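Hi R.,

Here's the chain you asked about this morning:
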Amino acid sequence: MTCEEIERWREVGANAWILEERRFATLQERLNELIRGCDVAIALPGGPGTLTEIALTWNLMIVASIPQKPLILIGGGWKAVFDEMFRSLGETTPPRQRRLLRFAPDVHSAISMLQLHD
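And here is the predicted structure, written out as tokens:
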């Protein structure tokens, strides 16, 4: 899924592995479709955009705006980020909300988690 706002900011286009591009006018439209249209959310290492996708998906599940689904974050970086958040902010995120996030060290582990989920 791509969007015109991102393409105006950095003209890179969809990567070579994309078989079907779904393009949206705004980043908000893209995020909405990306989050609501998936059965599983897997986040690879990334930056602020990926963090936005994680946080929005997680928050929508917390408030039951979308059904709960596997939300798997790949790589030690995400685990470190959220461990620090939980450590620093304490009980602002209760255990039932923390359990919605799952961490996998690599893609193969994430696939195994999904196979156990079925």
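One quick note: The beta strands are 2-3, 23-24, 41-43, 71-74, 101-104.

Cheers,
M.
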